[in-house]
Amino acid sequence: MRAEMATAAGSADRPNEDWAGATPTAVVLLDGLTAPRDLDSGCMHDVPWYVGRLGSALLARMADSTAGLKSCLASAIEDVAILHADTCDLTNPGTPQSTVAVVRVRDSELEWLVLADSVIILDLSGELRVISDDRVEGAAQTQRDEALRSHVGTTEHDQSVSRLVQTQRSLRNQPGGYWVAAADPAAASESLTGAAHLSKVRRVAVLSDGAARLVEFGLAGWEEILSTLAEDGPQTLIEEVRRVEATDLRGDRWPRYKSSDDATAVYVQFEGI
């Protein structure tokens, strides 16, 4: 398995809250949830601290091929919780959190797991399968619509996004809401998982939602995204996303929460394929 990756922060004034890593048999991509500066997290650590430790712990756990992916994720979440349980309030709904998207070669199969809205694209002998957990789309719809009506960069927009996040926090990791990796290992049981026989797998892409914006904006399809990754690489895909975002910084044409989001793309090919 050969993996190529690129990542870029969405803006110069905030750290990159995405994280990606790979081994010869596994890929992990995390997209940390940005916390508005006016909302308390109950934690002395920031989101990059959290995703860096969760990603490393998850890759290490996935090295054990006898453990299922949900079990690996649950153990990794617990590993990180132990690191700051004595210093931080892990019951705070704003405790650092992240989406999760992973693939792993295990025997003759390629396994995958997704929690929240990062994306895995599988090219299975020419048949495309796109996997994402979109339960967040149904949460806090009123506040979501309000935030998307305002212009990025305005006080009104910042306030509406803060109200949206506050409402979403009350729905995260709750029945009837949606699920992310945070401090409770039980969230791992809500992951979407599956597997495909390796003989059918041609290519794989793992994307944070910031790297998938050309599809969100209706400017490309998933096949085009895979072609760009194959021909020009992940960095070129991110540069194209940035070029498009720069033509609509306020979100007039493509309403969104940030002018530019952190973007991470991993492209995977297999030896001899």
- The helix/strand series, from N terminus to C terminus, equals EEEHHEEEEHHEEHHHE
Distance between the termini: 10 Å
Instruction: Kindly provide the name of the CATH class.
Output: Alpha Beta
Taken as a percent bin, the fraction of beta residues is: 15-25%
Number of helices: 7
Oligomeric form of this entry?
Answer: single chain
CATH architecture call: 4-Layer Sandwich
Q: Mind telling me the C-alpha Rg?
A: 18 Å
Q: Would you tell me the overall average pLDDT?
A: 96
Class from secondary-structure proportions: alpha+beta
Summarize the structure.
The protein is α+β, with helices and mostly antiparallel strands and 273 residues long. Helix content is 31%, strand content 25%.
Task: Describe the protein.
A hairpin with a 2-residue loop joins strand 6 and strand 7. The mean pLDDT is 96. Helix 1 packs across helix 2, helix 3 runs antiparallel to helix 4 and helix 6 crosses helix 7. The strands form two sheets. This protein has a five-stranded antiparallel sheet with strand order 1-10-9-6-7, covered by helices on one side. It has 273 residues and is α+β, with helices and mostly antiparallel strands. The protein has a single domain, classed as PPM-type phosphatase domain (Phosphatase 2c, domain 1, 4-Layer Sandwich). The chain is 31% helix and 25% strand.
Compile the SSE list and pairings.
Elements lengths: L1 E7 L9 E6 L2 E7 L14 H16 L6 H16 L13 E9 L2 E7 L3 E6 L2 E5 L9 H9 L5 H17 L20 E6 L3 E7 L5 H4 L5 H11 L1 H12 L17 E7 L4
Antiparallel strand pairs: 1-10, 2-3, 3-4, 4-5, 5-8, 6-7, 6-9, 9-10
